[in-house]
Batch of 3 targets.
Target 1
Amino acid sequence: METIGPTLAELGDADLLVLWAMRRWLMARRNGERVETALATPFDLAGMPDGPGLIDDLMSRVAVSVSRPLTFGCLHCCVVRQDENQMLAILRVLQARRIRVGLELLCETVTCAAVASVCDAAQRLVDRLADARLSLARRATLHVVPIDESMRSAHSQ
């Protein structure tokens, strides 16, 4: 049985963009669409017009070098699948310059012969995300705080 990761609500903006892009890349490839066109708008809005090419490079390298089939959710899936979470974790540690950890995580995902190549593509993506001020280290941290009656009446005035 597959382990499910966090929900979308628990991810930060950069994580959401990359997760969506990985899922949309797979969909575009399956449907014969041009990846650059399919991924363009969100990356343009994020100030990363080169983002689609970076995702395409990374995911193309991953696709030909995985050590086992990977599972990705559809665009509407509200939970992060184990393999998606692993890819986000790899990108997160590479953006934090923890290269050795990133290489170890990549060894669990792609063949050993492809680790350096995939790591190079991943590093280019995370460096560009950082240039656009999109940090994979930030995650949404929403906390539910109970409102007592005195707070409720103060907010309604």
Target 2
Amino acid sequence: MANAEPLDSILANLLMDHCNEMLLAVNVSTRSIVAANAKACRLLGYPWEDMVGMNIEAIESGLTGMFYWQEVANGNIQELESAESEFQRSDGSTMPVEKTVSKDIIGMQHFVLISARDITSRLHVEDELARVQKKLANRDFMAKAKAEVIQKEKDKAVQFEEKIRTLRSSLEKIDGLQAGGIS
């Protein structure tokens, strides 16, 4: 029992595995994943044994991720709060994520700690909202256009009625002149 894991280590692992977000720890010098929680392994489709040791760029392979990890390779480690990126799953499909990145030093080693969550549902809702807003805007546009057409037609009717009154007035003057003896 001398090799048993300390209770604080067991509890830390339990907390990490029961977190609602994907958690990854990346060694800055190698850019390899040194720790991952159960949620990250499950959502990305990798067993823990395959995930640990994997290069982070195999998972975060989109343009944003590539630029970020290139900066890390150049020694420029930026902490991020709520940045969007894409993670690639083991089956090759991608998942949009929102991530928070922090950095830490343990001993002489630098680590990047990533907390990420799948935002697929949120993006679908935002797309649907944009579609509905566009549809409503189109309805508003059509209603305004219809109102303008109706107003123009009303204005034409008023002008036409004015022309008829003018014409009647002119005809009445002509009839009055003829009745007065001018032929």
Target 3
Amino acid sequence: MLVKVNLLTLENRQVLLQNAKYAIHLACAFSKLAEANLLTRDNRQALLQNPEHSSGLADAFVALVKADLQEHRQALLQNAKYAVSLANGLVKLAKAGLLTAENRQALLQNSKHADSLANGFTILVNVDLLNPENHLTMLRNAEHASSLTSALEVLAKANLLNAYNYRALLQNPERADGLTVGLKMLMRSRFHTQQNLDTLLQCSKYHGRLAPALMRLAKTELLSSDNREVLLQNAPHSYDLANAFSMLNSAQLLTLDHRQVLLQNVQHLYSLSVSLYILTNAGLLNHENLQILLDNISSISGIQRYLEIFNPVTQQNIENLVACRHQLSDFFEKLQENPKANPRELVQDFRVHVTKSAGCSF
């Protein structure tokens, strides 16, 4: 590393030996400064006084010089641990014309989050939202600055960054990452409306499930105000609920009674959705077969695996499911006791057992 820039002198070798624990950091830092023609005695001394953070300091020194901001060098030394974040933040504020004494002090007091805060200030000023109140709320939530900035960036790209949404975002800053993920999903499918954003903002978490649920219902023209409320009330299960609604609607089976059964059994929605999907692909999702699933919903996880074993299923498979449900319960229990077991390894014994005990042909 030092050889490449002709720095392997006796003096440097002694310095590295004296700082053996941080020798790699220092060697890297010396090389960076030498390549930028910044390995002055003062800079070298600064690195030796902060060997643990020397590599970051070198990057920060270079960044300030490139941006003609050398007057802030002392600030980096006072915040050596977060020198890179601070330098990047100062450079970004300078480029945006925001490097005032007030903003400089704000970054110095929050050096760990300086880069993210600078990003946030820049995004807000671009949409004319960087007023004293919003400036203060960003600083008060500095520990969440990285997550908030990501959310602000996505909101801006979606043309949804306004005073109302900013305030709503700051009500749950610790959930900003989840909101960002959810909004990105909506943007990919062009469903990033204010109404959908409002739905996400009302949910303290589960954005990663709620967003695709909104998309699923929107695509099948089921995204009514009632269904939005249902998704919010059942946010942990919202995606499976949306899938079930959509599949039943496509089969003209989404009655009020069926809807009520689903809402009363949200803990079983995943297995029910998988089962509905298998029946749909087999062209067997009708009223009679749906009723079989709903009548046995307490055993739906076992039924799901049964259908997966015989996928693609036949009507005979379903009739056997009903005729042999008592014998099947033992099999379901085995599957539930061994959820990671490959059901196909058990299916032969299962077929022999049920055929002998119930006369069913599988």
